[in-house]
Each structure stands twice: as structure tokens, then as C-alpha cells.
Write a structure and sequence with these properties.
The protein is mainly α and 427 residues long. It has helices spanning 9-30, 32-38, 40-44, 48-64, 66-75, 78-95, 102-116, 119-130, 136-144, 146-164, 167-188, 201-215, 224-229, 231-262, 266-294, 302-318, 323-338, 341-351, 354-386, 390-408. It has 2 domains: 9-195, MFS general substrate transporter like domains (Growth Hormone, Chain: A), CATH 1.20.1250; 224-409, MFS general substrate transporter like domains (Growth Hormone, Chain: A). InterPro entries: MFS (IPR011701), MFS_dom (IPR020846), MFS_trans_sf (IPR036259), Sugar_P_transporter (IPR000849). Its main location: membrane.
């Protein structure tokens, strides 16, 4: 059986589940940006500096619990882990709508980060259990599309909910879908192809054979410690840290930047905030397809991050006097920052064996969370301290330039050696 004919039904069954799950995770972390623009600071007496810290606290919780979540998913069950995460993060998201003071809000933001920490690495492990090397960039992209597509519709829906009800009701309403989806997740998901009743025995055998064959060309790595010391893993951690500074500085503060630019209402800010994510969605699909077609990952990462960096710097040079040109450059920056996610997360399972790749992806993603914390906090601080987004554009652009350089010096091919044989032992 040829690779491209192995169980095409996997795409139609698994991808909607993956997409919806990550969409709901992203909804419940990114809607804080709309509350910040809609008056939560005034209602709770939050200063601009404290607002930056509260927005960023999510990523501290996210940072500390990535690796434990990935190890559980790799050794036990993605299905059970995500089921409980869905219930807990939906509950935390709704509880945000009833907070009455800053310490309560800070605690909920941190806990939300903790319960969402495992989602990304666990879902990447889930995808690597079901999709082959030639499919993985596209599969990863369908997962991560939950990010820009969610912000796309959330930008509009959250704007209307705030306008019609208020920021509290927005949090409460938007937390419920995750809890409801947890029930559907439990009945729809199987951890491995061997457990799927909707695949034939021939399809299961062909898929398992292809996945096993891929592992034979990857150098054995005996445990997580050795994987984490790998030069490439360290470089990718640093790269994702720098990249995430740009992404989350952008995500958390775009509505506020737009409102400050023209003193527009929340609905208008919502619609304008949605456009970069529409462009990002299209770019991600095209880039992931090309990456799988050419089987070249780096070529579809660093050039796009360079475009994003130049767009941020262009927004700075244009200045606040030309809002629409600056906004157009922000659209380019958003699309360019999101486009490489699929190829990027295909790099790790192609250079590390299955027994350690999940933990390595979690480590890299946790460094991304630390970058997200840095970006979301410092961009908010710069906006408040300078009264203008100009300094933020320079900061985010510089971070992306660092990510470009780090991508260029990664050498995934160095990890591909002789067949593994029996060399890889469980960590």
C-alpha cells in the first residue's frame, strides 16, 4: 500500500477534533486581551503595569507544567489528559468573569496556564501517533490553525459580547464550550491507531509499518536528559523563545494598539483585529502544504519570520501619523509570524526518536511560553510607559530577527545517523 493511500479518512476524522480542541484552548487564553481593552482595568483598579503582568501570568503557569504534561501524554494517555484539561480550563475561563479583586484574577490566570500547559505538546504527540513524516507539517498546521482562526472569530464575537453585555459576561459565556466539548472528546478520541474501530486491520497495519519505518532512520537517544542536551534542541528552545515574544506581544495587545490609534469602539477594533488572523490562516495552509511537498522545514520558517520582523520595523518607521499603512504592515507581520508553525513543529519528531520527541517538543514549547510571558508583559509595559506602540514594534521586530538567525544555524540533518536497531531504550 502506498503512503499517500493509507487511511485518508484519518484527516476527516481526526483533524476536526484536533482543530476544535486547540481552538477552545486559544479562545480561553486570548480573550483577556479584549477585556483589557474593554474596561477590566478600570473596574478592578488595575494599573497599566499590573495589567501587563496579569496578562502574562498565564504563561508562567504554562511554562512550569509543559514537560510533566507531555511525559504523561507520551507514557499514559493523551485522551485522559486532555479530557480533564478541557473541563478545568473551561471552568477557570468562566470564573474569570466573576472575579472581584486583583489577587483572585492573578490566581485564575496562573491556574489557567497550568491546566492548558499540556495541551500543545499532548496534541503534537497525538498527531505524531497518527500521521507520517510526509503529512506532519499539514497535520500540525490544522492543529495550530485553531489559534488564528479562533482569534479571527473571537475578535468579532468578543467585541459584540462586550458591547452587548460586558467583559464579565464575555468570560462566563466563552468558558462553557470547553466543558461541553470535553464530553464529545471522551467518546470520539483514541490514543493510537490500533484502538480505532473506524480503521480496517489493513489500514492499521500499513500505518503502523510506515511510522515504524520512519524511526529506523533516526539516531537513538536513550533518555530525556540526552535529548535536552542536544545542540539542536537548545537552539530551537532559544529560537521559539524569541519568536513567541513577537507573537504574543502582538496577540495580547493588538486590540489596545488599534483602539489607541484611532479611538475606535470595541466592535470596530474587533473587526480590524480579525484581519491579520484571516491572512495568517491562508498563509499557514499554503506554507504547510509547500513544506510537506518539498520536505524542507527550515526554508519555510526563517524567511517568513524575517518578513514579520521587517513589517514590525516598517510599522515603527511609518509612525502613528499614518494609521492605515501601519495597520497594513501589522497584517503582514501577523500572517508572517503564524505561517511557519506547521513546518517548525515537524522538525522535532524528524530529528529525535519517538521515545524522547514528545518531551523535547514540550521543552521547546515551554521556552515559547517563557517568551510569550516576556513578550506580553514587556510589550504592555512599553505601551504604557511610552504612550505609543512604536517602541513595541522595535522590540518585537528585533526578537524575530534573533529567531531568524537561530533558525539558520539549526542543523536537523546532524541527528540522522544509522538505523536505530535496538539502541533506543525507554526514558
Amino acid at each position: 500500500m502506498k503512503k499517500h493511500t493509507i487511511a485518508p479518512k484519518r484527516w476527516w476524522y481526526i483533524m476536526p477534533i484536533v482543530f476544535i480542541t486547540y481552538s477552545l484552548a486559544y479562545l480561553d487564553r486570548a480573550n483577556f486581551s479584549f477585556a483589557s481593552a474593554a474596561g477590566i482595568n478600570d473596574d478592578l483598579g488595575i494599573t497599566k503595569g499590573m495589567s501587563s503582568l496579569l496578562g502574562a501570568l498565564f504563561f508562567l503557569g504554562y511554562f512550569f507544567f509543559q514537560i510533566p504534561g507531555a511525559i504523561y501524554a507520551e507514557r499514559r494517555s493523551v485522551k485522559k489528559l486532555i479530557f480533564w484539561c478541557l473541563i478545568l480550563w473551561g471552568g477557570c475561563a468562566s470564573l474569570t468573569g466573576i472575579v472581584s479583586n486583583i489577587p483572585m484574577l492573578a490566581a485564575i490566570r496562573f491556574i489557567l496556564g497550568v491546566v492548558e500547559a499540556a495541551v500543545m505538546p499532548a496534541m503534537l504527540i497525538y498527531i505524531s501517533n497518527w500521521f507520517t513524516k510526509s503529512e506532519r507539517s499539514r497535520a500540525n498546521t490544522f492543529l495550530i490553525l485553531g489559534n488564528p482562526v479562533t482569534v479571527l472569530w473571537m475578535s468579532v464575537v468578543s467585541g459584540y459580547l462586550i458591547e452587548s453585555f460586558g467583559w464579565r459576561e464575555m468570560f462566563i459565556i466563552e468558558g462553557f464550550p470547553a466543558v461541553i466539548w470535553a464530553i464529545a472528546w471522551w467518546f470520539l478520541v483514541q490514543d493510537k491507531p490500533a484502538q480505532a474501530k473506524w480503521l480496517s486491520e489493513d489500514e492499521k497495519a500499513a500505518l503502523q509499518a510506515e511510522l515504524k519505518k520512519e524511526q529506523e532512520s533516526i539516531k537513538a537517544v536513550p533518555n530525556y536528559r540526552e535529548a535536552f542536551k542536544s545542540r539542536n534542541v537548545i537552539l530551537l528552545c532559544m529560537q521559539y523563545f524569541a519568536w513567541s515574544i513577537g507573537v504574543y506581544g502582538f496577540v495580547l495587545w493588538l486590540p489596545s494598539i488599534l483602539r489607541n490609534g484611532t479611538q475606535m469602539g470595541m466592535v470596530e477594533a474587533g473587526w480590524l483585529s480579525a484581519v491579520p488572523y484571516l491572512a495568517a490562516t491562508i498563509a499557514m495552509i499554503v506554507v504547510s502544504w509547500a513544506s510537506d511537498k518539498l520536505q524542507n522545514r527550515k526554508l519555510f520558517v526563517w524567511p517568513l519570520l524575517l518578513i514579520g520582523a521587517l513589517a514590525f520595523l516598517g510599522s515603527y518607521l511609518v509612525g502613528p501619523g499614518n494609521f492605515w499603512l501601519s495597520y497594513a504592515l501589522l497584517v503582514v507581520a501577523g500572517a508572517a509570524m503564524y505561517a511557519p508553525y506547521g513546518p517548525f513543529f515537524a522538525i522535532i519528531p524528524e530529528m529525535l526518536p519517538r521515545n524522547v520527541s514528545g518531551g523535547a517538543m514540550a521543552l521547546i514549547n515551554s521556552m515559547g511560553a517563557l517568551g510569550s510571558f516576556t513578550g506580553s508583559w514587556f510589550v504592555g509595559y512599553l505601551n504604557g510607559a511610552t504612550g505609543s506602540p512604536s517602541a513595541s514594534y522595535i522590540f518585537m521586530g528585533a526578537a524575530l530577527l534573533v529567531a531568524v538567525w537561530l533558525t539558520l544555524i539549526v542543523k536537523p540533518a546532524d541527528n540522522k545517523q544509522q538505523p536505530v536497531g535496538q539502541g533506543a531504550k525507554p526514558a
